[in-house]
Amino acid sequence: MSDKIKSTEITDKQVYLNRRLFMRAAVLAGTATATTLLYRRLNPQPLKLAEGEKLDDVVKVTREEASKTGYLVDEPQTPLASITNYNNFYEFDTSKSGVAHAAKGFVTRPWAVSVEGLVNKPRVFDLDELLQIRQEERVYRLRCVEGWSMVIPWIGFPLHKLLEKVEPTSQAKYVAFQTLLDPNRMPNQKFGILSWPYVEGLRLDEAMHPLTIMATGMYGETLPPQDGAPIRLVVPWKYGFKSIKSVVKISLVADEPPTTWNIEGPDEYGFYSNVNPNVAHPRWSQADERRIGEYNRRKTLMFNGYGEQVAKLYEGMDLVRNF
Ligand SMILES: Nc1nc2c(c(=O)[nH]1)N[C@H]1C(S)=C(S)[C@@H](COP(=O)(O)O)O[C@H]1N2
Ligand SMILES: [Mo]
Question: What is the count of structural domains for the chain?
Answer without folding.
Answer: 1
